[in-house]
Automatic annotation (TrEMBL):
This is Uncharacterized protein. It comes from the Bacteria.
Length: 330
Protein backbone atom coordinates (compact mmCIF):
# COMPACT_ATOMS: atom_id res chain seq x y z
CA UNK A 1 0.00 0.00 0.00
CA UNK A 2 1.21 3.54 -0.67
CA UNK A 3 2.16 5.75 2.27
CA UNK A 4 -0.52 8.13 3.52
CA UNK A 5 -0.48 11.17 5.79
CA UNK A 6 -3.24 11.18 8.39
CA UNK A 7 -4.10 12.57 11.81
CA UNK A 8 -2.43 10.79 14.70
CA UNK A 9 -4.63 8.76 17.06
CA UNK A 10 -4.11 7.35 20.56
CA UNK A 11 -3.47 3.95 18.97
CA UNK A 12 -0.30 5.41 17.39
CA UNK A 13 1.26 6.35 20.75
CA UNK A 14 3.46 3.24 21.18
CA UNK A 15 5.04 3.70 17.74
CA UNK A 16 5.33 7.48 18.23
CA UNK A 17 7.19 7.03 21.50
CA UNK A 18 9.86 4.96 19.76
CA UNK A 19 10.18 7.43 16.89
CA UNK A 20 10.33 10.51 19.13
CA UNK A 21 12.92 8.91 21.42
CA UNK A 22 15.07 8.16 18.37
CA UNK A 23 14.67 11.80 17.31
CA UNK A 24 15.69 12.98 20.79
CA UNK A 25 18.76 10.73 20.69
CA UNK A 26 19.85 12.41 17.45
CA UNK A 27 19.64 15.84 19.08
CA UNK A 28 21.52 14.53 22.11
CA UNK A 29 24.31 13.28 19.83
CA UNK A 30 24.72 16.82 18.46
CA UNK A 31 24.91 18.53 21.88
CA UNK A 32 24.61 16.39 24.99
CA UNK A 33 24.58 19.37 27.39
CA UNK A 34 21.76 21.22 25.64
CA UNK A 35 19.67 18.20 24.64
CA UNK A 36 20.07 16.05 27.74
CA UNK A 37 17.80 12.99 27.75
CA UNK A 38 15.44 12.77 30.72
CA UNK A 39 15.86 9.67 32.88
CA UNK A 40 12.16 8.94 32.34
CA UNK A 41 12.07 10.14 28.73
CA UNK A 42 9.71 7.42 27.54
CA UNK A 43 7.21 8.25 30.29
CA UNK A 44 7.38 11.99 29.58
CA UNK A 45 6.84 11.49 25.86
CA UNK A 46 3.89 9.18 26.55
CA UNK A 47 2.33 11.75 28.90
CA UNK A 48 2.69 14.56 26.37
CA UNK A 49 1.20 12.48 23.58
CA UNK A 50 -1.66 11.26 25.77
CA UNK A 51 -2.60 14.82 26.73
CA UNK A 52 -2.38 15.99 23.11
CA UNK A 53 -4.31 13.08 21.61
CA UNK A 54 -6.83 12.24 24.32
CA UNK A 55 -7.02 15.27 26.63
CA UNK A 56 -10.41 16.83 27.17
CA UNK A 57 -9.29 20.37 26.36
CA UNK A 58 -5.77 20.29 24.94
CA UNK A 59 -4.19 23.38 23.40
CA UNK A 60 -4.50 23.69 19.63
CA UNK A 61 -1.96 21.02 18.70
CA UNK A 62 -1.84 19.09 15.47
CA UNK A 63 -0.14 15.70 15.29
CA UNK A 64 0.00 13.94 11.92
CA UNK A 65 1.75 10.74 10.91
CA UNK A 66 3.13 9.15 7.79
CA UNK A 67 1.56 5.68 7.72
CA UNK A 68 2.86 2.93 5.45
CA UNK A 69 0.63 -0.10 5.82
CA UNK A 70 0.30 0.40 9.58
CA UNK A 71 3.94 1.37 10.23
CA UNK A 72 4.59 4.97 11.32
CA UNK A 73 7.54 6.33 9.30
CA UNK A 74 7.28 9.96 10.34
CA UNK A 75 5.40 12.46 12.48
CA UNK A 76 4.68 16.19 12.33
CA UNK A 77 3.82 18.26 15.38
CA UNK A 78 2.34 21.73 14.96
CA UNK A 79 0.45 24.28 17.01
CA UNK A 80 -0.97 27.78 17.01
CA UNK A 81 1.51 29.98 18.84
CA UNK A 82 0.13 32.59 21.27
CA UNK A 83 1.31 36.10 20.40
CA UNK A 84 3.43 37.66 23.20
CA UNK A 85 1.58 40.68 24.62
CA UNK A 86 4.17 43.24 23.46
CA UNK A 87 3.53 42.35 19.81
CA UNK A 88 0.53 43.41 17.74
CA UNK A 89 -0.35 40.05 16.23
CA UNK A 90 -2.35 41.76 13.49
CA UNK A 91 -2.37 38.51 11.49
CA UNK A 92 -3.49 36.39 14.41
CA UNK A 93 -1.67 33.52 16.02
CA UNK A 94 1.08 32.16 13.77
CA UNK A 95 1.26 28.46 13.08
CA UNK A 96 4.40 26.75 14.35
CA UNK A 97 5.83 23.46 13.07
CA UNK A 98 7.58 22.11 16.15
CA UNK A 99 11.17 20.76 16.35
CA UNK A 100 10.03 17.23 17.16
CA UNK A 101 8.68 16.82 13.64
CA UNK A 102 10.78 13.90 12.40
CA UNK A 103 11.01 10.87 10.12
CA UNK A 104 12.42 7.36 10.54
CA UNK A 105 15.85 6.72 9.00
CA UNK A 106 14.31 4.39 6.41
CA UNK A 107 11.28 6.55 5.60
CA UNK A 108 10.40 6.66 1.87
CA UNK A 109 11.71 9.55 -0.18
CA UNK A 110 9.40 12.55 0.01
CA UNK A 111 8.14 11.81 3.54
CA UNK A 112 9.61 15.01 5.00
CA UNK A 113 8.00 17.21 2.35
CA UNK A 114 4.67 15.42 2.66
CA UNK A 115 4.59 15.88 6.44
CA UNK A 116 5.53 19.56 6.24
CA UNK A 117 2.88 20.23 3.58
CA UNK A 118 0.26 18.43 5.67
CA UNK A 119 1.22 20.49 8.72
CA UNK A 120 1.00 23.71 6.72
CA UNK A 121 -2.43 22.80 5.38
CA UNK A 122 -3.71 21.87 8.85
CA UNK A 123 -2.39 25.10 10.36
CA UNK A 124 -4.04 27.16 7.65
CA UNK A 125 -7.30 25.30 8.25
CA UNK A 126 -6.93 26.21 11.95
CA UNK A 127 -6.69 29.90 11.01
CA UNK A 128 -2.96 30.57 10.77
CA UNK A 129 -2.09 33.30 8.28
CA UNK A 130 1.64 33.08 9.05
CA UNK A 131 3.56 29.81 9.37
CA UNK A 132 6.95 29.35 11.00
CA UNK A 133 9.02 26.24 11.60
CA UNK A 134 11.56 25.31 14.25
CA UNK A 135 14.20 22.70 13.56
CA UNK A 136 17.47 21.68 15.13
CA UNK A 137 20.35 22.87 12.98
CA UNK A 138 21.07 20.35 10.25
CA UNK A 139 21.32 20.28 6.48
CA UNK A 140 18.42 17.90 5.79
CA UNK A 141 15.75 20.01 7.49
CA UNK A 142 17.29 23.32 6.37
CA UNK A 143 17.07 22.14 2.77
CA UNK A 144 13.53 20.82 3.20
CA UNK A 145 12.18 24.08 4.58
CA UNK A 146 14.17 26.22 2.17
CA UNK A 147 12.62 24.34 -0.77
CA UNK A 148 9.18 25.14 0.61
CA UNK A 149 9.90 28.87 0.74
CA UNK A 150 11.07 29.36 4.33
CA UNK A 151 13.69 31.94 5.34
CA UNK A 152 15.51 32.01 8.71
CA UNK A 153 13.69 34.30 11.15
CA UNK A 154 15.22 33.51 14.56
CA UNK A 155 18.37 31.70 15.62
CA UNK A 156 18.73 29.87 18.92
CA UNK A 157 22.40 29.84 19.85
CA UNK A 158 23.81 27.76 22.67
CA UNK A 159 26.91 27.37 24.78
CA UNK A 160 27.79 24.82 27.45
CA UNK A 161 30.41 24.64 30.23
CA UNK A 162 29.23 27.82 31.94
CA UNK A 163 31.33 29.26 34.75
CA UNK A 164 30.70 31.13 37.98
CA UNK A 165 32.82 34.25 37.57
CA UNK A 166 33.19 37.74 38.94
CA UNK A 167 30.62 40.27 37.77
CA UNK A 168 31.53 43.45 35.90
CA UNK A 169 31.45 46.34 38.42
CA UNK A 170 28.80 48.25 36.45
CA UNK A 171 26.33 45.35 36.43
CA UNK A 172 23.78 45.00 39.22
CA UNK A 173 20.50 43.22 39.95
CA UNK A 174 17.37 44.98 38.73
CA UNK A 175 15.40 47.07 41.21
CA UNK A 176 11.96 48.55 40.74
CA UNK A 177 13.60 51.90 40.06
CA UNK A 178 15.28 50.40 36.98
CA UNK A 179 11.99 49.44 35.29
CA UNK A 180 11.53 52.75 33.37
CA UNK A 181 15.06 52.46 32.00
CA UNK A 182 14.50 48.83 30.96
CA UNK A 183 11.27 49.82 29.22
CA UNK A 184 13.10 52.58 27.32
CA UNK A 185 15.81 50.17 26.16
CA UNK A 186 13.16 47.56 25.34
CA UNK A 187 11.46 50.07 23.03
CA UNK A 188 14.78 50.44 21.17
CA UNK A 189 15.10 46.67 21.06
CA UNK A 190 11.60 46.28 19.62
CA UNK A 191 12.31 48.90 16.96
CA UNK A 192 15.41 47.00 15.85
CA UNK A 193 13.32 43.82 15.68
CA UNK A 194 10.65 45.49 13.55
CA UNK A 195 13.27 47.04 11.25
CA UNK A 196 14.73 43.56 10.72
CA UNK A 197 11.36 41.94 9.99
CA UNK A 198 7.78 43.25 10.22
CA UNK A 199 6.84 39.92 11.78
CA UNK A 200 7.75 41.67 15.07
CA UNK A 201 5.07 44.35 14.79
CA UNK A 202 4.85 46.16 18.12
CA UNK A 203 1.61 46.43 20.08
CA UNK A 204 0.38 49.97 20.76
CA UNK A 205 0.49 49.28 24.53
CA UNK A 206 3.85 47.49 24.44
CA UNK A 207 5.59 49.83 26.90
CA UNK A 208 2.91 49.48 29.57
CA UNK A 209 2.66 45.73 29.06
CA UNK A 210 6.41 45.21 29.20
CA UNK A 211 6.66 47.39 32.31
CA UNK A 212 3.99 45.29 34.02
CA UNK A 213 5.76 42.07 33.06
CA UNK A 214 9.15 43.32 34.30
CA UNK A 215 7.57 44.41 37.58
CA UNK A 216 5.99 40.98 38.03
CA UNK A 217 9.24 39.27 37.03
CA UNK A 218 10.94 40.90 40.01
CA UNK A 219 8.79 38.66 42.20
CA UNK A 220 9.80 35.43 40.40
CA UNK A 221 12.58 33.55 42.17
CA UNK A 222 13.52 31.36 39.19
CA UNK A 223 15.34 34.06 37.20
CA UNK A 224 18.11 36.63 37.42
CA UNK A 225 17.47 40.14 36.09
CA UNK A 226 20.48 42.40 35.59
CA UNK A 227 21.21 45.84 34.20
CA UNK A 228 24.28 47.87 33.34
CA UNK A 229 24.54 51.65 33.65
CA UNK A 230 22.91 54.18 35.94
CA UNK A 231 19.17 54.35 36.62
CA UNK A 232 19.11 57.72 34.91
CA UNK A 233 20.88 56.45 31.80
CA UNK A 234 20.56 52.69 31.62
CA UNK A 235 22.74 51.07 28.94
CA UNK A 236 21.30 47.57 28.81
CA UNK A 237 19.52 44.69 30.50
CA UNK A 238 19.42 40.90 30.44
CA UNK A 239 17.03 38.31 31.89
CA UNK A 240 18.41 34.83 32.63
CA UNK A 241 15.47 32.47 33.07
CA UNK A 242 14.75 28.72 33.07
CA UNK A 243 14.04 26.84 29.87
CA UNK A 244 10.46 26.02 28.86
CA UNK A 245 8.80 23.25 26.90
CA UNK A 246 8.13 25.57 23.94
CA UNK A 247 11.66 24.96 22.68
CA UNK A 248 12.42 21.54 24.16
CA UNK A 249 10.45 18.36 23.35
CA UNK A 250 9.38 16.29 26.39
CA UNK A 251 12.12 13.64 26.04
CA UNK A 252 14.69 16.21 27.15
CA UNK A 253 15.62 17.19 30.69
CA UNK A 254 15.58 21.01 30.77
CA UNK A 255 16.54 21.51 34.42
CA UNK A 256 20.15 22.35 33.53
CA UNK A 257 19.34 24.74 30.66
CA UNK A 258 18.87 28.48 30.96
CA UNK A 259 17.27 30.71 28.31
CA UNK A 260 18.07 34.31 27.44
CA UNK A 261 15.44 36.10 25.37
CA UNK A 262 15.22 39.63 26.82
CA UNK A 263 18.74 40.93 26.18
CA UNK A 264 19.70 44.34 24.83
CA UNK A 265 22.53 46.84 25.08
CA UNK A 266 22.96 50.13 23.26
CA UNK A 267 26.11 48.74 21.65
CA UNK A 268 23.83 46.40 19.69
CA UNK A 269 21.55 49.17 18.39
CA UNK A 270 22.97 48.86 14.87
CA UNK A 271 21.90 45.39 13.75
CA UNK A 272 24.58 45.30 11.06
CA UNK A 273 27.80 46.33 12.80
CA UNK A 274 29.34 46.75 16.26
CA UNK A 275 30.35 50.34 15.71
CA UNK A 276 31.29 51.03 19.35
CA UNK A 277 32.45 47.55 20.30
CA UNK A 278 30.60 45.15 22.55
CA UNK A 279 32.26 45.33 25.96
CA UNK A 280 29.07 46.18 27.83
CA UNK A 281 26.94 43.71 25.87
CA UNK A 282 29.52 40.99 26.46
CA UNK A 283 29.67 41.79 30.18
CA UNK A 284 25.89 41.37 30.45
CA UNK A 285 26.07 38.04 28.65
CA UNK A 286 28.83 36.75 30.91
CA UNK A 287 26.89 37.88 33.99
CA UNK A 288 23.87 35.88 32.83
CA UNK A 289 26.05 32.82 32.24
CA UNK A 290 27.50 33.14 35.73
CA UNK A 291 23.98 33.40 37.15
CA UNK A 292 23.02 30.19 35.34
CA UNK A 293 26.14 28.42 36.61
CA UNK A 294 25.42 29.52 40.17
CA UNK A 295 21.99 27.85 39.87
CA UNK A 296 23.54 24.64 38.56
CA UNK A 297 22.60 25.22 34.91
CA UNK A 298 25.24 24.00 32.50
CA UNK A 299 24.00 25.30 29.14
CA UNK A 300 22.66 28.63 27.90
CA UNK A 301 20.19 29.02 25.03
CA UNK A 302 19.95 32.53 23.54
CA UNK A 303 17.17 33.75 21.25
CA UNK A 304 18.42 36.06 18.49
CA UNK A 305 16.82 37.32 15.25
CA UNK A 306 18.58 35.87 12.21
CA UNK A 307 19.04 39.36 10.76
CA UNK A 308 20.66 40.90 13.87
CA UNK A 309 24.26 40.43 12.73
CA UNK A 310 25.92 42.51 15.45
CA UNK A 311 24.22 40.46 18.16
CA UNK A 312 25.09 37.20 16.42
CA UNK A 313 28.71 38.36 16.17
CA UNK A 314 28.76 39.08 19.90
CA UNK A 315 27.33 35.67 20.73
CA UNK A 316 29.71 33.85 18.43
CA UNK A 317 32.66 35.72 19.94
CA UNK A 318 31.46 34.42 23.32
CA UNK A 319 31.54 30.82 22.08
CA UNK A 320 27.91 30.33 21.01
CA UNK A 321 26.85 28.22 18.04
CA UNK A 322 23.49 27.92 16.30
CA UNK A 323 21.56 25.02 17.80
CA UNK A 324 18.09 25.60 16.37
CA UNK A 325 16.57 27.73 13.61
CA UNK A 326 13.10 29.20 13.38
CA UNK A 327 12.13 30.02 9.78
CA UNK A 328 9.14 31.82 8.29
CA UNK A 329 7.28 30.81 5.15
CA UNK A 330 7.31 33.71 2.69
Amino acid sequence: MPQIIRAATPYDIPQLIKLLLLDAAERHAQDSALWSIAHDASTQVEKALTVALTGAQPPVQIWQVADRDGRITGVSHAMLLPVPPIYAGSKGEPGLIMPDTCVAPDAPAGTVDALVKAAEDALQDAGAQVIVSAYVAGEAWRTAFQKRGYDPLTLYLSRAHLEVRGRHPDIRPVSEADIPGIVARSAENRQVLFDIDEFWETHADADARFSAWMTRSLTLADRDMMVIGSQVELDGYIIAQPASRLHFPPAHDIAAVGVIDDYYHRELADPETLGSGNEGAMALLRAAEAAFAARGRTAAFVVCPAGWRSKIETLQAAGYETAMVCSIKR
